[in-house]
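Repro:
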Amino acid sequence: MARGLTYADAVRLLGGGESRIVTALDRLTGGLLLAATGGGSTFALSLFDAKGELFRHGHDLIRDLVAKKRGLGRTDRTELLAAAQRVLVVTAFFEVVAEVDLPFDVRELRIGKAEQVAMAGGDPSAAPLLVQGLTATDVPLITPARPYEHLLGDVMLFDRKLSRELVRFISGLAVWDRLSTTDQDRLTDTLLEPVPRAATRRFEEYLQRLAGEFPELGFWVDRIDHQATRAEILEIRTGLAGLQRFLDEMAARQVPDDRRAALSRHYRARLGRPLSESGDAPAGMVIPTLQGAYVNPRYRKEFAVHADKLTSESWWEEVVPVRDDLQETLIGHLTAPDATRAPLLLLGQPGSGKSVLTQVLAGRLPANDFMVVRVVLRETPADADLQGQIEYAVRDATGETMSWPELARTAGGALPVVILDGFDELLQATGVNQSDYLQQVVRFQERESDQGRPVAFIVTSRTAVADRARIPPGGVVAIRLEPFSDGQVGQWLHTWNTSNSAYLASRGLRPLPAATALAHDALARQPLLLLMLALYDADTNALQNGDATLDLAELYERLLYRFAGREVGKTERGLSEQAFTEAVDEELLRLSITAFAMFNRGRQWTTEQELTDDLAALFPDRPGRPDAGFKARITPGQAVIGRFFFVHQSQAPTQETRLSTYEFLHATFGEFLVARLVVRELTELARATLARSRHVVVDDAFLRALISYAPLTVREPIVDFLAQLLSRVADEIRRAMGDFVLGCFHTALEPHDGHSAYRPVRQTVTAHHAVYMANTLFLTTVIKGSVTGSELFPGEGDPVGPWWRCARLMQSQLHRSGWSSLIGAIRVNRIRAAHGTRDVRLSSPAPTLTLEHFSASWTFDHRPDITNFAFPGVGEMRASAQFVCDETEDVLLHALAPMNREGYAGYDFDTTTFVKVGDDRYVSITHALLNLWNRRPDAHDGDSDSLVEAYETCFNFVGEYFVLYALLRQLAAEAPLLPRGWRATVVERFATDIKDAKHLHPWARKAFYDIDVDFLNEDQS
């Protein structure tokens, strides 16, 4: 399909290539208008003649299209509908033009011989410029990619352009010169204003009539114009059945060839199979079929031109509204011309149902009108090009080997639709930059269109990596799947409970109510995780019988323990109760190592090789188990997570091997497992500490290896899970745990070689120790509730000094997100110890941050009887900021810069001079002036006390010349707000300083305008 069509192109496409109008347009655009042709006269007359061929022929073409609609395949039907729209745009315009009340006889539009000769000679000023609007300008097309209102605006602009060219055309004819100026202005105004508006409205009327014959047009405009059709589709809320019913009704009357039928059979067979084919269901339980249980999801849709926005949760949630008409959107997209120009991008979180949606869509599209190829990228060769991946998928689905061009040529009038499922998996599994992947798709579409084989593409990806592929220059339509609503959770559970009514009744179990599932919001709203909850509850009603106060950590513990127990029971039968418990704990331990493999690498996924390496480094004495039979020996990584359906595996085969990555279906599974393993290890270490003899050292090497690469605080759910898990630890164990981890902090900077083979990321020695220090500090505070600097640095006379060095070390080595999360999780308060020395108290969970008043005696460790002092620090502060390039210091010095003056041998005592103004309250001149400038009393209530107090504080610094100058300027502006009596005392206190500085007198007169001051009066005289 061409990317743009002119009016003349559209007429030809609809079969009107032999019309006299097209012939005339061809001659006019060739610049060969001779007197003998008469083409110009015919064309000009037709513009204003209600019986003219221009618009009569347009309606004839539309009627012919309607008559043959049932014989059209999807590709031809879409292309002809696009052409029909463009013809209607032009037809509507000239019909309105023909209704204009002309101030002359229409027959006077005939072009005379002189004008014909001028145009034949190539005089551009005499050429009918209007022809350019019909032969060289693309006519706007209504498509679902953009809002209908915006596209109508494009039609209006097109009509206005035609109107301007029409005015220029008429003004070049002899009849124009015979009109009066008033008639010329009236005709111009009519053609430029009312005509485009009326033409756009008429086009809308014609478009609605055409949509009555071709219902897909109602979905192109993305409006609620066809209430009955849309209501019928919305009523069918499962399995995209409404989409199939609608497309079946308008599908072409043709029988698909064998290859297209084979593909269709393959995808339709999946609809009748269980929703999940993981084999996790107990005997007798029924997993509903895909077509019966799939709930049509809610979504957000936006036309995207920049990939970075697609990963922004705030952008989606604040800018793009939630919708529930996905079937209609898919119908509109797949029947519109834009589908073959750029891919549709389908985004969602893990477990949101992207892949399942593509399975349902592939099974629902009718083979009469569509030829679907679903490419599961994790199962196709990652090193193959796009065409190779498609051909691999065709062979996998049908068993036949065929080239893409060969297959595409058999499509007939059906539209090929290629679904590329799992762009994110291709990225993760290969680690190869695929930033131009969507552009590769567009280039493929362009090539196929040039060869007469237009093809539509749908690409799915996890939202978090959507910005890893550049958006093609023309932009793409992006759809993001949304979590289930309350009603959708209830709908899904109704299907589940109905399907399993016999199973539940036979075991005396209750159906799972939606309210119970929704109590666990984070899980219930994702389709696959909701299935997990249902499976969990179907085994003894565990979810319903749980404690009403069950927190998320306990729920996750029970869920994961039960699923791990089920896997152990499948492979290791006949275990004693103790052996069974140990086997389950071993499964969960290895799953936790998987979680740390992701967490310590700063990702939500890990590769199979990375996990295998981690397991080998942490458990060198526990090799991976071999499989029996002819299967290849599986890796430890495969052994750990190949059995859990809540772990998503991405694969990308290459010629030599199959690259795999793993990811939890919900990030909180991994975050819980990280917290669980930390608490498990600390509990065992605490017990060992309580049981050990005096001379036995408890080794924390395993825990140290795990928590030396990423701050635990960087993931807020880990912090929450730790608090919940620790709340269930016995007091004695918790106290021992706190003492042990405090001891770990004491030795955090000492060398340690345990588990040296475990290196999930490259890291400096300094960063390794700093991260471990940050984690032991956080764990100490969260376990103990609070800890002082004296406890952190025992034996130090002033613990603030080592705390400062410790904090700076962590700040320098942690990434910004790690540092920000640490200072957000731990609150530091400045205190005095019982014997008067300064100290700090760290607490967690961190209470709301309240900034303490500046205490010079604490900060500088001064005696409280010192009344003023200067901290010679501005020069040093500047040098320090310049040296370390610290952003915070740069920002603060930038704010202080207007207050600083050069001098005093490199020191600025103005900014760093402190004066005592109360009990242990010191202020600097900078603080005093900024406080004054930010005080604005309400002139209506007369409250000036706070302003007076601010001035009085500043008066402590009047010894500096610029201070008095600044205060008088301020006082001059605020004099009416301040008491006269107080201002009289001010002038009395500083009379000598003001009198000797003549340049201060203008400000003083304004500040003391209502006070009799002798030396100011003398100036006036």
